Amino acid sequence: MQCILSALKSESQPFIEFYNLEKDRRFSFPVFRNKDLYLVGIGVGKKHIEKRVNDFIQKIGSSPIQFINVGLAGGKKSIHTIGDIFIVNKITDEASKKFYFPDILYKHSFQESGVTTVCKEITNGGADFSDLVDMEASEIFKVCSKLSSAHNLIFIKIVSDYMDKSLGSFDKNHYSTLMKLNLKEMDILIKNSNLSDNGNHDILNEYDEQWLVQTIKILRLTKTQSLLIEKYFKGKKIRDSSYIYPNILTNMPENKFERNQIFKKICEELTA
Amino acid sequence: MKEIKYLKKSVKNLQPKFSHIYIEKRAYGYFLSDTILRKFSKSSIVDIKHYKDVFNRSGQDFQIQKKSMNLILAKKTPPFLYPITDMVQGHHMPGFFYTTPMLNCLYNCEYCFLQGMYSSGNIVIFVNQDDFQEEINLKLEQNKVSKKVVTVSISYNTDLLAMENLFPITKNWIKFASESKNLMIEIRTKSSNFKPIDTMDSNQNVLLSWTISPEEVSKAYEHLAPPLSQRISAVKSAMDKGWKVRLCFDPIMNIENWDKIYSEFFLYLFQKINNKKLYDITLGTFRMNKDYFNRINRRNPQSEIYYSEYVTEKNTVALPKNMRIFMMEKLKQELSKYIVPKKILVWD
Predict the structure, then answer these.
(1) Distance between CA B165 and CA B40 in Å, rounded?
(2) pTM of the shown model
(3) How much is the ipTM here?
(4) Residue B40 maps to a domain
């Protein structure tokens, strides 16, 4: 499952249209969906991120999940051009001075940059900052790294302004246009990094899990026996992925002795 | 023999190895840093404060990182020498240490403790190698009167020789050892990459230790490591050039027909190499520090090794004692056909 996180409506709208996302009315904040791809509106700044991401996960309840923060960032006139697009390789939280490092393991065609997350909008040209500046990345990393591995946190930033009010301000259309111009390239990265294509899989499939749960229940296995049978089952499945769960009748045993005998028999088959 | 499915499942669209180099600010300006940054000039460089900020992060996926490894260049601070662990044969010997010029390995052996020791699959290179050697000099100085030999395993948490073409560290250590007195450095490897040190004169202060396994074990568990034939070829080259060579049959894996497989392997091996020239042999069954084993287990490893039956003795996960003693006795007996028993060091 993939989840795009964006702050502004003008950032979200191009994705909603591009991916034909539909509003998910279970949520009190903007959530859009098409199959396994979601978009969650997190609002501007840090304040709503934790609650919205956690509410989203609680309702969706699926793992693993990949978070892709797509957003606009302030750049430096001396080094950036409006419309430049970057993958973030280092996030600095201005308030706490903490650093966060997303793992950039997926191939991409963008430049890379660090970003500093600030609490208040910067309008003086950003002389104090050496890289890009945004208002969400550090909080997103902090919250989402508890839910996903570091390589499944992807940050894409597009330079929208030079953090200098004296150079004038931009309207919503400007932001939407910047997003639209880069959509195709972002789509390639989003597709390339899709979890379902990248070898993430469980050892036991749905049927194996069902057999395991039922067997533990029917045989009334102890905690230790349950763990052992799961361990041996996984070992067997690694050795032989086509293996189907033990063909041993698991009727309710009449006593502990009988249970232990069946348990032993299953273990013997699984370790054979 | 089982198939390695999780590696065969291609992980698409990953970056090539070392696409990113994380470097501590204080690590700039060292010879190794300059060499590596020049060699990987196309990599993205990310400045960091301390290597642990990247290497020890929570939420890393060790296995996926191994498929797209990155580099971390750092400056090590003391200590530089650690007493050898009780997992190693001869650990009770006085003056036996290990040091860590590099953390992590190019290879990805399923039985390796590094995946439990480190939360990251990335490689850390400490660029201040001189500081490591300075500490060894101090230790040698302390032993000057007694002339006790100090043994230092320099490739215990890595495989330096495997990466010598990329990161020239082994040569530097051999040079250091050859200029020292009462020092023995042990270089553990699974590499077939003998060529980079082929031009150097062999030195009696250096012990080249090859971990070598039957083809069945190598194919099943030692991912990315060179095949048996290439390792044997490297061993032969080293012995022919007069280097001290140790063979490590370690870990011995409790696979089906292990006795037949290992016996045939020894027969094959000692037809290829001159057993009289061997320095010694180490032998030991699979074992691991309990905490490392449990950490690997929590990650739901795709290796059958972690779903077998073991016992925990003190802080070590190992095969049940009767089993491992039986295996060691059988294989020691087998090896005694080729090498005198006193040269066989066993972990039991």
Answers:
(1) 13
(2) 0.90
(3) 0.88
(4) no
